[in-house]
Structures are given as C-alpha cells and as structure tokens.
Write a structure and sequence with these properties.
The chain has 16 helices and eleven strands. It is of the alpha+beta class.
Length: 424
Amino acid sequence: MDYKRFTLKNGLKVVVSPMPNLESATLTVWVKTGSRFEDARTNGISHFLEHMVFKGSKKRPTAKEIAEVVDSIGAETNAGTSKDWTNFYIKAHAGHLEKAFDVLSDMILNPILKEEEIEREKGVIIEELAMYEDTPMIRIGDIFEQLIFDKTPLGRDIGGTPNTVKNIMQDDFIRYRKRYYYAENMLLTVAGKVKRNKVVRLAEKYFGELKKGGLEGKETKIKGGQKGSQLKLHSKKKEQAHFILGFRGNPRGYKGRFAEAILSVILGGGMSSRLFTEVRERRGLAYAVKTETQRYQDTGYMGTYAGVDVVRVDEAIKVVLDQHYGLADGRYPISSPELTKAKEYLKGHMALALEDTKGVNEFFGESELFLKKIETPEEVFKAVDKVTIEDVLFEAKKLFVPKKLNLAIIGPYENSERFEKLIK
C-alpha cells in the first residue's frame, strides 16, 4: 500500500494514503495524549474534551450547526480517546474533502467550550460511565488494567470517575489544550480517493496556523515488572461472571511482536482457536472467549477474556490457565498447519481492515505517532510469514510464567480466596 509522508512548516506531520479505486476519503486528526497524561484531579479530561469539540466552534457555534453541515454532505464523524492518543475523524465522499478539513479543523482548533455546555455534558458523561459499569463485558477491561497497572496513570479509567468529571472546569480545558494541542504533538492522516498535492494545500490552509510547541507533557513511565501473581475481584450481582486472565508483556515496537500476535491467535483468535474449542465447544463454559494483546509505549500484556456461568467459573479459569501453561511447557505442541492457519488469520483480518479508509488511517496513524518508522502492510505480512514455531514457543515460555499472571473478575462473589488458590 502506497503512502506519502510530509511535515508542514509548523511541524505538523501529515500521512497520505491514496486509494484511487474508492469514492470516499477519511480525514483523521490525531493528538498524542490520552488518560495516562492526566493528573489524578482531572482524570477523564481527554475524553471530556473529545465530547466538547462537537458542542460548538468558532464558525459553527452550536452542536446542531456542526451536525447539519456534516449531514449536508452525507458524511460521518466521530472521535475516540485511548490512554495515549485522542483522534477525531470525518469520512465523506472524496469530492467533499475540503469541507471535511474545514469542519474538523474548526472543531479541534477553535472549540468554544461554553461553561453551560460543559456543565450539561457532565451529566452525559456520568451516564456514559454508568452504562459501562453496567456492561461487564466492557468494564472488565478497565478492572484488569486497574489491577495490572495499579496506581499508575495507566491504571486509571479513560473516562475518569463521576467525581473527577464533576470537578473539571473551563480553565482545565484551556490549560490542557495549551499543553498538548500543538503542531508537533499532532498528526493528520488522510486516506481514500485523494491526491498528495491537494492534501498538502488543504493541510496548510486549515492547519497551517496551528501553533508550534506546547508546555512539556507529563507521562509517567511504567517501570519494572511484577513480583508475583495478582487478583482483583469486582463484586457485582450478575447472572454471568466475566474475567480476564492475562500476563504482563511487552511494549509497542517489541521485536517479537509478530510471534506474540500469532501466539494470541492460536490461543484465542477466532472460532477454531484452542480456547474457543476447549472452553466453548467441548465444555460449554462460555459464549464468548477471546485472546488479545495490548501494547503501550513502555509496557503491555496478553489477556484472555471469557463470559461464563457463575457456577462454573472455577472450571473455566482452570481450563484457560492450563491451555496457556500447556502451550509454553510443550504439553500441547503447535503443529505446522496450526501455525499457517494463525498467520493467514492475522493477515486476512488486517487486509479486511485496510479496505476501509478509516482503518487505513488507524494503521498508519499509530505507527507514525509511536514507532520510529512506518511499516507498510506488505512489510507486516512478510514479518508474519517469517515467524516459526520456535519463535512462538519462545514468546510463550517468556510470557506465560506465574509471576506475570493477573486475574480480574466481575461476578456475584464476596470471597476471593477460591480464586487466589487457582492462580497461586
């Protein structure tokens, strides 16, 4: 896949990915900040600001006016906040690319941040937090990261808490924007039926006035590893138990990341994976079971999620743990066909994601923000193909050790001793 990379005079980076066979284009604006950059008092401000840019800007002072201009070109727009990035996008017919630049730049660079809108939106966000609390399939991820990253900023929830959200004021947004929303800390990615020269012109026109340099950002590095297995029980009366069993792992750019990715697919990627077969098909313990890898700049983990019958949760945990350790110690060896299938699964899912302009922006965006060099899809496919069974086993033996084990559970349980016995 072709891409062009350039930098504006003010230091803003732009990555363009022409996809001439499509009729659409997506413009995504990235900011290299998220909840891990926040202090404890303003936890949730990155996500809160994501909401506020849609509430009114200099050219379009109300949320209705922003929505109307987006609807008038048949476009879609949204945003997302993670622990270390925030992004905003508009996906539209390629003929409306300049309108997308106009709308998105005004929203991000000139939000009004009215005090009455801030107060009103607090209620919306607090309801959003309540919705996540009542959705254990989503909430378990937060509980797991609270466990594995403890009292560090990575252990805080992206949305904050009702108390921190209530206490965020207009001045907090202004200070936060000065600290992080500046040219060298931001990135534009554009994918679709676009030409480089036009994107350069529009980027200069709509983002050329973005100021250089902000205040020095605060990012607490996560140092060291675990000293032993850990458990966190979130007691909640539910008809189903939800858990993530995971191992402290490696950061972005880790040299063995492709072997790790294949390892996670073999364990719990897809309906023919080992865990799906053992947990769901053979024992009927869960409807959903999957293994995923999460990476940050300085740390990461591999975790397996399952939603299970509350009575049979112990059995499910034992099976999941046995599959991890059994793969690492050689009791459940990897076959050549299994390795090949995992590679094709990875490449296939990536290829499907790259058919969408938004997915292309996500692929190039995170690479440009966090890695020393952008890897093309073709380079990733080649790296995946080179992985051997020995490479996968090396990562499994390194990762699946008791002192790196973490177990987070949501369910109607009061006593954690039964679970502690399973992981010790």
